[in-house]
Specification:
The complex is a heterodimer of chains A (about 270) and B (about 350). In chain A, about 75% of the residues lie in helices and about 0% in strands. By secondary structure, chain A is mainly α. Chain A has one domain: MetI-like fold. The chains are: A mainly alpha (about 270), B mainly alpha (about 350). Chain A: It holds the Pfam family BPD_transp_1.
Amino acid sequence: MIRQLLRYPSARAAFVILAVVAVLAVFGPFLAPHDPLAQDGSALLQPPGTRYWLGTDALGRDVFSRLLAGSTVSVLASLLSVSIGLVLGVVPGLLSVFLGRRFEWINLRVIDALMMLPFLVFAIAMTAMLGNGLVQAMFAVGILITPAFFRVTRAAALSIANAEYIEAARLMGASTSAILRRHVVAKVLPPVAVAAASMTGACLSIVASLTFLGIGVVPPDPTWGGLLATDLANLYDRPFGPVAPALLIVATVWALNALADALRDSGRKETAA
Amino acid sequence: MTTISEPAPPQAAPIVTGRTIRLRHGKALLRHVGGTLGITLPVFFIATLITFLLGVVSGLDPAAGIAGDAASPETVARIRTDLGLDQPVVFQYLHWIGGVLRGDLGTSWFNGVPASELILQRLPISLSIAGVALLVGVVFGLGLGLVAGVRHGGRLDRAITLFAALVSSLPPFVVAFVLILIFSLWLGWLPSSGYVPFADDPIGWLAAVSIPAVALSVDVIADLARQLRTGLVVALSENYVTGAVVRGLSRRRILFVHVLRNASGPALTVLALKVPMLIGGAVVTEAIFNMPGMGKLAADSALRGDVPVVQGTLVVSILLILACNLCVNILLGVLQPAARRRS
């Protein structure tokens, strides 16, 4: 599977970027050359240099260290949001096809309603009103992205719900849960994997938006989105300040999208062959 | 669409005239609109229920705040009864949604101002940004998609597809940064913050709104262009197109009268799904450009625990989004008779 993916040049580049991001997320806080919270009063708003590689912010904190230290929270938050969305979306998505029309109708309307919520405003409202914190933010984002997983799962499940081999299994007396486990899950997994990869990218950018607004993470703690916010405030003194965190976010999101595309393409070839 | 004025005269054999076809179409369309409404209403109630439950789950209680620090438990309990907070959640919701439908969104717990008044002050700003973003997104998204779809496989198509792929991995605030850097800092053409009401100075309004709106629309442009391109490529390879070419219809007529109507389905559907992102996403651009819009009101109120105002902004947003969706769905029904059967 992975060897197949590596045939795509974009997937290779994506793997390299994601490996770097993974290293940053796991070891970032230990790799930081300076304390991300330490303030150096003698070096405010420094341009990139030898002592502070990416310069310092308005409080004299090392931007490079803050970027490294913020990786863990930014990556972990998006991964956990996707996991929550995955569970909340895939299970009802599967069941909506196999559990009768009333259950299906209610599920579809709830998903419709979730899709009609103003995404970021709702995530902000939910996070703030449940007690502004990272866990609340991840739950809010996780719940709001469930429609994406629900729809993908449902579409895949619908495409085989009336297939002859499913009917044969049912005639032979297989229970719904056995059919789901034996036949449906295998069919649903590839599109869900594609959705998960691209949604992780989307979540990273959503989490960055939230932390940018000071939602989910309390200000002194560094995150990629929070770094962007402080950089924007100092745009006139350090016009290239936002470049590093923005590039990191964009590169990660691009890598996840490229991975999703490669996954989709390799899946298509497999079914075609 | 109008009601039938006179009964059709009895006929020996059913003769299908242009009028009866139009009537039939009208009836089918009415049924389609009815069906769409039949789905929209439950969705409205579920979405507002979720919004209402948010306040309940938050556990924030206005009674203690109103009563003050020195109040006895009895006073707090009395205020809770007055506010109806001791009733089951379902009744509380019905009471609240009844008020919402009459235009009463409650009053702010923070300063006692009616929530609807606070929202109406901020609404024009958010509507300006989201509206201009929608317009820019639709015009450029459909334009680029049309070009890419008609010239599919060509150099222009590849350039547009690459642009769409690149741009869709950019979060809107990154786009906003780049635009501020170019148009405000280097060229100095547009302001990087602040809002000017349209009635005061239309040109100032456009200057203030354009960067945030463009930053927000980029994602819409990319997605619409991709969907329309795919739709066009599929529709252009259909047999009826070959038939039309054989019959000698002009390329332009084939494209705009026959193909576009069938190819626009996925693009319109995506457009409907983008509206919540536009209205919700305005909150980030409002923060970047320091505009006191509805998103900012919602964020500030949420951080203060001002439940009625947060719920009010969410309800207004949901109504806007549902209205846009309703329009897109009806448009789909008009453009594509087949879409009516699907819904």
